[in-house]
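Help!! Second protein's tokens look totally different from the first
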Amino acid sequence: MFRKRIAAVLVLPLAAAGCSWFEPEEEDLDFAEYEQQLTETYNESVRLSAELEAAEDRIVKACLEKQGFTVHDPWEFRSEAQAERETFLDAPPYVWFLPTVEDAQRRGFWQWTRLATPQAAEDGDALYAEWEAFQAEIGWESIEFGEEEQEHVEFFSLPDEEQFAWYVAYGGQAWAEWLHADLIGGDQADGSPGGEDEGVVIPVGGCRLEMIAAVYGELEEGEDEYSVRPGQPDGDWTRMKERYAEETEDAEVAFLDCLVDRGQDGWEFYEGEILVHSYLVEAGEGEYAHYEYPDAGVRWPDPPADVPDADDVDGWIEFERDLATDFAECGDESGYREAAAHGWEQAQLRYYLDIEGAVYAWQDEMRDLIAKAQDAIGA
């Protein structure tokens, strides 16, 4: 009894000071309980974004066509909406360095697709088709024109003055002169990072401004065309990454030990990733890494001296396959793959559940804007 009273006295000042030493660990959530609900919410957000974007484009095109512009620049109407998913989960950090054993033995880490002639490899066309499917799966698919836009590539065959007139009607005189001055003998704006025009906001006009006024109302001072659409809510991504790191800390050690046992020592984790693509580029495979952290430092071993020749695509694929197979098998044997998958599910569950209410409110706001856009289209 006396010992218990002393313990209580010792703990009280710590609790009063807000000390987190005695905070209980977060219990695992039931992934299956929430997956369908969160996936439906995610996909509804995707659909609403695409619907509003399509309605905006219809208003702008109708405005242009009233003025006699029937051939359009397809780049101004390309969709930037994300694709729907089978699961709400974002691509995990290990997607780039931890293929399955089967995938590792077939296609390595995909870095060989950065070589000058990747499709020259044996079965290169089939493997490259897999690479494109992989990009789509993780949300890296390239933006392509649909059939309607393909029919209007003729826009770029129009005389320069006709193209410029279209841009004036689309975005206003100042906007057209800023982005397309080359069509009338002027200098192209330099909006590149570090360029003299970086961060310059040119007032939009023309049909873009007409659409904005119809859907969002008049622009206020300081507002630009990109700030009127309500942004989708974001959660605490930093805390999400911390949760993931907490779940995988011990498994990372076991994974690296397994690599050492296979003669693959010198690797280190960086923010839940192994920078294998940077290693492969240093070894000579391609001009740049598919995925890298420039500020991470060197967290990989020195490449061997006997790497394939620069133009030996098949040799590089085999080089990758051997390394990827070691990674994949160690992921299984060390328990890292299981721990990483579980940790990502738990971290992502809490991230998306924390913002679910805000997302529902944002969806309601988007529906109101879609209704306004449809009214404008009907008018």
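Here's the second one for comparison:
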Amino acid sequence: MKKIPIGIEDFKEIRIENYYYIDKTKFIEEILNDGAKVKLFCRPRRFGKTLNMSTLKYFFDIKEAEENRKLFNNLYIENSPSIEEQGKYPVVFISMKEIKGTTWEEMQKSIREILSNLYEKFNFLKDSLNERNKRKFEKIWFEEIDGNYDDGLNFLTNILEEYYKEKVIVLIDEYDVPLTMAYEYNFYDKAINFFKSLYGSVLKTNLSLKMGVLTGAIRVAQAGIFSDLNNIETHTILDEAYDEYFGLLENEVENSLIEYKTEDKLEDVKSWYDGYKFGNMEVYNPWSILKYIKYKKLDTYWVNTSGNILIKNLLLHSDGTVFEDLDSLVKGKEKTVYINESIALGSTLDPNNLWELMLFSGYLTVKEKMNNKTYLVKIPNKEIQSFFKTLFAEIMFNGKNNISNMKSALESRDVNRISGILEDLVLNAISFYDTSRKYENPYQNLLAGFLYGIDDFYRMIPNPEAGDGRADIILKPKMKNWAGYIFELKRAKTKDMKKEAKKAYEQIEEMRYDTFLKNAGVKDIIKIGLVFDGKKVETYY
């Protein structure tokens, strides 16, 4: 029985080390036949992007062509006319998911290291270069600060073509990872200028380029990173083209279950891990399927972190009703959303992109296309549904401890502890960058997102009609004899935050917000006024 390739993304390793492999090599044929010079594939994490890129690398690479040819024995592509293209071209394969840094200076250092390691693989080219090009090569190879890094890929393709007398195939995996990290740490404008130049120089008007293929989770629109490329064709999960090559189809899952003698569980596996729709294809998450095959247990195996910082910011900047929509989705309902297919980062981040980002990140899937830009979306399966609510609390607050502590404090009516937890949340989960933006109330959405994660014990209701107005947040207990909670939130207008917190508390009394809970039969009601100023919090109860 073949080994299960959990976390193995290198095609050669899978084939040589006798791992189980589901043949997706018809993807190569499609790539060659579609005619587009540059292609971008947007898919969620762990749906096979890197493995497909690795497969392309070993197929096309002129280096070790004869040895690599054996990797494709008994696969679809072996009997395709496209096999004639095997081993014909120099290939530059670079993964951007290894580029990291919490400052632009740190990321620049990481970029220098990644490009230096790439150049090391082509160190044999040095002897064929003239003195000028040799010096350019060595500047990047030795990670010198004054190296021409934003032209690093373009230069490499030029010297490869000169050496092999063949045009070059460029493969860029997870192109958007450093961009979302730069957005998270507030140096996006600097990063976008570099990567626009890096990608543009190698993919546009590069006479050495045979073909370019990129993968990522989202299509970044901000600052026109691809605006200069008139030769790029983008394929998202909404497209029919290439819809069968990322993720597993039902017959592929069924065959893998038969291989590992678990075919009797197909219906259970389908309800837990099926439900994604890419183009016209029903798709399973391959990571979860492989984990299930190994452990023979239906569980939540897939957690996508690639877009979570963007989701966090969108949640903070959305209106309070977003959590009502999330709750509706958890209960199996659908939501109509407008999809633009390009996520604009930077200062123009639009709260309306929340649903779009969740769709492209794999938390939602398309049930039906309504018209050209409007789709009916839903939670794809039981796996996502099982951790959906807790996920968003964890995204916002980086772990479960505060959630557990809050549950305990609410149950014991420990208002001092509740207040302390909320102050800690504001201090650690929201930055001054978030609070300084002119959105209506990021604090309310911060708390709503957090309290949304305690749904086992309380129903969090944002902006409900109560008494003579609308309360900011009400917690309705699901356990008998538990207290209900009403929160009124304000931004500080004066330096006397204690006095303002008292006014917020008095508003609860004056507007009779407790009517909502009283009508629901809740007898013990705790009212808390909260005032925020940057990362400072004052409470009154």
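Reply: Different proteins will give different token patterns, so don't panic. The chain has 22 helices and 17 strands.
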